[in-house]
């Protein structure tokens, strides 16, 4: 079925990324980056089915060549942590043909980005025919009418007039200056630097500390860039993707629709799936079960069962008030749903706890490894500096030469001890060199992400369980109007079949992760949560109920027998 997925990312030089590299990846091409002299080659990458570059009206036509476009971006962004591009990854509906998918993407890009002044570079990937998705790379700096890059920010000077402070750009200040506004400069007041206007400083006979006027920290953002970077605009783009996709689905005669809103915003109490990523999907294609994909399969099956249970309860509502069998079925159906959610909570909580234990086993040693690496670099730097200083000293500098030699000996000893500890740590991890410890870092990252995903699912299961328990309580209130013993007997007739059904469903959902003892625990927990005796206690409860009912009848028989004797 059609799914909604729109992932927004920023391509930043500060994060070690390159706009040229990102373009080469999405287009499966070979592109040269003039900024760092690196050639990025993704020609061997599989799965490219379509690609196109889009330019706004004022952009130079030579930018149809994506290498020239993104090198122009790299050239204008000079800072080492510059934002270079904005990237979207969107899921394309499998219900549409390839031609329809392309037209859908083209319309979305032209309406939302190109018409607003962005250059766009887009491609569709689909390696196996079941996961069509598009990468959209967008410029983040607006263009002027001459096709030149606009500034992202302008320097904004904080000026004073009659005790009021206001910000002006250089162009604005030329006008404001005629109105009596003055820039503020740092002046020496004792040992301190104080910002004030030249006129105020001259009156006090103060000396300017430097020539740099007071300004806002980040300058004034270009209003177009500011809008593009806002959370509000992202919401607009997310909604627009859902709208245009649904139009194409309707045009194709399909009933499926997508919704950009979260489950919570849509009033749904279902568990959300987690992001799988290409690595997990690649493992699955090779026949290797990915933890992330496995989690999502479980989530989908659980949601499917929860929806079925709720539909069943809804159908029973009309008959509940007058029918003990219907009320019994509704109560047991509700209990079945709570049992499923409790098992899910137990499993995902336990899995998260196990991951946390493994993380705690690995992380301290890995952090110690990082600390040792850092210390070794610092010691090596110090050793180098001391050695260099020693070479520059004259032969007569006996005192300092002796000090340096002692320091060198101490540093060398420290480094040997650190190297020895490092070797032992590497051996503990089964690694031969520091470079291979990247695998440990990746392992920790995967475990941490999986743990977070498991905890999220467990929390959602707990919330859903609370909701279902409230519904169960409402049914219990209705049950007060009927005979308790009859209702209990009717529920017990259904209990075995329903428990077996949910057990089989849990087996299908969790597969190799199904555990009989965990299911038994979940069953006992549900009884406790609902304030009802567990199955092992049912017979005694039923006996008590029958005893309570039979008591008046027995007393009546005794009274009849006594009267007969008296007669």
Describe the structure.
Helix 1 (19-27) packs antiparallel against helix 2 (66-76), helix 9 packs antiparallel against helix 13 and helix 13 runs antiparallel to helix 15. The protein is built from 15 helices and 14 strands. The protein has 5 domains: 6-147 and 225-260, 2-Layer Sandwich (BirA Bifunctional Protein, domain 2), CATH 3.30.930; 153-221, no CATH class; 285-337 and 448-535, no CATH class; 359-443; 536-567. It is an alpha+beta fold and 567 residues long. A hairpin with a 2-residue loop joins strand 9 and strand 10 (164-168). It is extended, with a radius of gyration of 36 Å. The chain has helices at 19-27, 66-76, 98-112, 170-176, 198-204, 223-228, 231-251, 277-285, 291-320, 324-392, 398-429, 438-479, 484-510, 516-529, 535-566; strands at residues 6-12, 30-33, 38-41, 48-54, 83-91, 120-125, 133-139, 153-154, 157-161, 164-168, 182-183, 185-189, 192-196, 220-221. The chain has a 5-stranded antiparallel sheet, with helices on both faces. Strands 10-9-11 form a 3-stranded antiparallel sheet. The chain has a two-stranded antiparallel sheet with strand order 2-3.
Number of strands: 14
Q: Helix count, per DSSP?
A: 15
Low-confidence stretches: 537-547, 560-567
Mean of the pLDDT scores? Answer: 85
Helix amount: 55-70%
SS strand fraction:
5-15%
């Amino acid at each position: 079925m059609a799914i909604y997925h729109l992932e927004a990312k920023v391509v930043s030089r500060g994060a070690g990324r390159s706009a040229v590299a990102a373009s080469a990846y999405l287009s499966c091409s070979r592109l040269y980056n003039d900024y760092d002299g690196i050639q990025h080659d993704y020609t061997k990458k599989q799965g490219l089915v379509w690609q196109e570059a889009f330019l706004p009206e004022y952009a130079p036509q030579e930018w149809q060549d994506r290498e020239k476009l993104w090198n122009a971006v790299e050239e204008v962004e000079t800072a080492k942590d510059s934002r270079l591009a904005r990237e979207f990854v969107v899921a394309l509906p499998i219900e549409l043909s390839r031609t329809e998918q392309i037209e859908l993407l083209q319309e979305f890009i032209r309406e939302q980005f190109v018409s607003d002044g962005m250059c766009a570079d887009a491609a569709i990937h689909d390696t196996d025919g079941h996961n069509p998705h598009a990468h959209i790379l967008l410029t983040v700096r607006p263009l002027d009418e001459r096709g030149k890059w606009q500034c992202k920010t302008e320097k904004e000077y904080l000026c004073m007039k009659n005790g009021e402070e206001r910000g002006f750009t250089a162009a604005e200040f030329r006008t404001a200056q005629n109105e009596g506004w003055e820039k503020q400069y740092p002046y020496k007041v004792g040992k301190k630097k104080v910002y004030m206007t030249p006129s105020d400083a001259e009156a006090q006979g103060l000396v300017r500390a430097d020539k740099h006027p007071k300004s806002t920290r980040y300058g004034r953002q270009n209003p177009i860039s500011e809008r593009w970077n806002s959370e509000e605009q992202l919401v607009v783009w997310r909604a627009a993707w859902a709208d245009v996709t649904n139009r194409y689905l309707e045009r194709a005669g399909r009933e499926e629709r997508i919704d950009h809103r979260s489950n919570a915003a849509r009033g749904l109490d279902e568990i959300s799936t987690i992001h799988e990523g290409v690595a997990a999907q690649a493992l699955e294609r090779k026949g290797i079960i990915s933890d992330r994909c496995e989690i999502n399969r479980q989530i989908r099956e659980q949601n499917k069962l929860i929806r079925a249970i709720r539909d069943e309860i809804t159908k029973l509502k009309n008959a509940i008030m007058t029918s003990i069998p219907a009320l019994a079925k509704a109560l047991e159906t509700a209990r079945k749903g709570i049992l499923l959610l409790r098992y899910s909570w137990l499993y995902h909580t336990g899995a998260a706890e196990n991951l946390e234990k493994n993380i705690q086993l690995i992380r301290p040693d890995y952090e110690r490894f990082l600390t040792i690496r850092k210390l070794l670099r610092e010691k090596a730097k110090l050793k180098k500096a001391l050695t260099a200083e020693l070479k520059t000293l004259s032969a007569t500098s006996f005192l300092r030469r002796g000090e340096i030699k002692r320091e060198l000996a101490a540093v060398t000893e420290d480094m040997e001890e650190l190297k020895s500890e490092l070797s032992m740590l590497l051996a503990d991890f089964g690694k031969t060199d520091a470079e291979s410890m990247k695998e440990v870092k990746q392992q920790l990252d995967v475990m941490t992400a999986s743990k977070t995903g498991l905890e999220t699912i467990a929390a959602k299961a707990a919330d859903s369980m609370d909701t279902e328990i409230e519904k169960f309580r409402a049914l219990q209130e209705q049950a007060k109007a009927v005979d308790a013993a009859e209702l209990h007997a009717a529920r017990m007739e259904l209990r075995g079949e329903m428990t077996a059904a949910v057990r089989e469903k849990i087996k299908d959902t969790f597969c190799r992760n199904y555990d009989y003892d965990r299911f038994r625990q979940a069953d006992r927990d549900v009884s406790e949560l609902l304030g009802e005796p567990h199955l092992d206690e049912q017979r005694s409860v039923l006996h008590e109920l029958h005893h309570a009912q039979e008591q008046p009848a027995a007393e009546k028989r005794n009274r009849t027998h006594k009267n007969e004797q008296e007669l």
